[in-house]
Specification:
Layout: H1 2-10, E1 35-39, E2 44-49, E3 52-58, E4 80-88, E5 96-99, H2 104-112, E6 122-124, E7 143-144, H3 147-156, E8 161-166
Parallel strand pairs: 1-8, 6-7
Antiparallel strand pairs: 1-2, 2-3, 4-5, 4-8, 5-6
Length: about 170
């Protein structure tokens, strides 16, 4: 999948997110996203519809961004295939969407090492309690996006959408 994404980028097939600005009326309603892809090393999130990337957002990661999440408190963002499975409209971070970490493989790996895999990994926007907007890697392992990007995700990404997180 990573090679597919990189191939599309190299071929110039990425659609500029500015092309999706404007109102979302019944006649101009945008299709729902059916896949979210995160490339951690690029600090980018791609939204896909029918195999075509339609929007891109800059992201922030955990304070310890290199490598896969192994245990609670390691401040790493997980890598792998997950599902966006529930929403929190009352988050401390101007809404959040839960990532289904840990999956069975994550729990098995953690059990083998005698550690707690952690959990409550979210895609979230900026803190509602902080007037300064944060940049860079600052979360405890979540994926941070702008408030404007969260507005788009909230409207276009249904629960049950797969998310693939790559190094």
């Amino acid at each position: 999948m990573r090679m597919f994404v990189l191939g599309l980028l190299a071929a110039g097939l990425m659609i500029d997110s500015a092309a999706f600005a404007g109102t979302n009326t019944a006649q101009t309603a945008k299709p729902l996203v059916d896949l979210v892809v995160v490339i951690k090393s690029e600090r980018l999130m791609y939204l896909y519809v029918d195999g075509i990337p339609v929007q891109t957002f800059h992201i922030g990661l955990g304070d310890n961004p290199v490598g896969d999440k192994r245990q609670s408190g390691d401040e790493r963002t997980p890598e792998g295939a997950y599902i966006l499975d529930w929403r929190n409209p009352d988050s401390l971070y101007d809404r959040s969407i839960h990532i289904s970490y840990p999956n069975a493989q994550d729990r098995t790996r953690a059990r083998a090492h005698g550690v707690d895999p952690g959990g409550n990994i979210m895609i979230h926007a900026q803190p509602v309690y902080d007037f300064d907007k944060r940049t860079g890697d600052w979360t405890n392992g979540c994926i941070a996006i702008s408030d404007a990007a969260m507005d788009v995700l909230w409207r276009r990404v249904p629960m049950g959408t797969p998310i693939h997180i790559y190094p």
